[in-house]
Design brief:
1 helix; two-stranded antiparallel sheet; mainly beta
Length: 64
């Protein structure tokens, strides 16, 4: 991987793509990336990503 690849980090845990696989997340204000470990947080507790994912405060958690 290129050195530039380490600039891409998980919006949940901040680990770089060199340490974990990342899934692209396209949202209102742009593109972010999330690792599989943090993905359940995006689904069940999106408010935990406030300040790291634009608009997260407006997302509703999954209803069980």
């Amino acid at each position: 991987m290129d050195k530039d690849d380490t600039a891409v980090r998980c919006i949940g845990c901040s680990r770089p793509v060199g340490q974990v696989p990342l899934i692209p997340v396209l949202h209102r204000d742009g593109l972010g990336h999330i690792c599989p470990q943090c993905l359940p947080g995006l689904i069940h507790d999106p408010q935990s990503l406030v300040g790291r994912l634009p608009g997260a405060e407006k997302l509703d958690p999954h209803k069980h």
